[in-house]
Amino acid sequence: MDTTNMSLADFAHVADRDIMQRAALFREYREDFFNRRHLQYKRVALDGSAPVRRVIDPYTGEIREMIYLAGNDYLNLTQHPRVVAAGKEALEKYGAGAGSVPLLGGTLDIHIELEKKLARFKCCQSVIIYTSGFGSNAGTLLALLQKEDVAVLDMYVHASIIDGCQNTNVKFFRHNDMDSLEKTLKRVKDSYRTKLVAVDGVYSMDGDIAKLDEIVEMAKHYGAYVMVDEAHATGVIGKNGRGTPEHCNVEGKVDIVAGTLSKALGGVGGFIASNEDLVALLHFYSRSYMFSTAMTPQAAGSLIAALDVIETEPDIRARLWDNINYFRENLLALGFDLGNAETAIFPIIIGDGYKVREVCRYLHERNIYVNPVLFPAVPKRATRIRMSLMANHTKEQLDTVLNALEDADKLFGITERYKTKSVKKSLV
């Protein structure tokens, strides 16, 4: 099998193959992918999240020291001494697990402490915590929206939100385009019982920020509620790291504030912050909450400490933003297309799936750990390398990455595409 011009989309549905035949066909695809040294997924690390990690090379078996730009541990709180110590203390006090689902026997006082702390942090009345961010989004929307309702979604919104809307009507608007949103809201204004606009606060593949102030104002005008997923915003943006509502000066005005606990907070799980009535409803109707064992005590203890660190050690976030500004300035100076990135997520947009794979192979050999983002995760014209920064990356590490990217550009002509585009535009 030649995977040069193939993608995962080719195996999403294979009409003439049953599930085992489809799996066997995909194995052939994966083998060719691996043989080309393009399989830069699920590389195995020998240590925790950090700016430099020891990684087993899947092709040679050797251990590589790699500069790591593929995570979401923006503030390095997975390794923060206060966060680790709090997790150990909770582990010793409560044991390894909660022992039951939260609605029956699994709720501990440490879970309630975390929920109250998150509610204060997010300026909402009440919070419900889940064991995954995906489960919190999907479980909440599946519980709330039915065939009489409509979800109005940014076309780049997270997959967990899209999956959560399977039982309702869905209308998409162009990414971060307020004219498109307004046209969509006008069309649905009088046709549905509940209208809910759902967006990401910071978009995971693009690194740009939702225009939440405009979205809230427009939604209210058309009688719609607003939900924002704060997965990549919490701890990163806003004067005090409280996320997109703080950044856009609409704290307390967003109907549902969702988020994961696994990015800048350094743990695992998800949450929904809203009014007391809606959270109480979710306790009994959100199946991903009702039928999943409660969060481990260790995770809850670490997350409480992580919130304390965000509130009391703002210098960590300041270091992250110093790195963001430095890296962005130098990438733009080298001529790379970053789209509208404005946070810790940096897409190097290449627009050629095979070239993305080749560049990632080259960077792996230079001990730079990054991920390819290919179709159908993004449109073919927007295939990219995704990089994300941490507060503890040093300038020397970032310079090493920048030098490797400059060399990759010379080898693969990454920026030639942009130059060709600009020439074509100037000739029209």
What does this molecule look like?
The structure is a single chain. This protein has helices spanning 19-35, 81-94, 102-106, 109-121, 133-144, 159-164, 178-188, 212-221, 244-247, 276-285, 287-290, 297-312, 314-333, 353-365, 395-412, 416-427, and strands spanning 44-45, 52-56, 63-68, 126-130, 150-154, 169-173, 195-200, 225-229, 256-260, 270-274, 345-349, 368-369, 371-373, 384-388. The chain is α/β, with parallel strands linked by helices and 428 residues long. It has 2 domains: 79-312, 3-Layer(aba) Sandwich (Aspartate Aminotransferase, domain 2); 315-427, Aspartate Aminotransferase, domain 1 (Alpha-Beta Complex), CATH 3.90.1150. Strands 4-10-9-8-7-5-6 form a 7-stranded mixed beta sheet, sandwiched between helices. A 4-stranded mixed beta sheet has the order 1-2-3-12. It has a 3-stranded antiparallel beta sheet with strand order 11-14-13, with helices on one face. The longest helix has 20 residues, at 314-333.
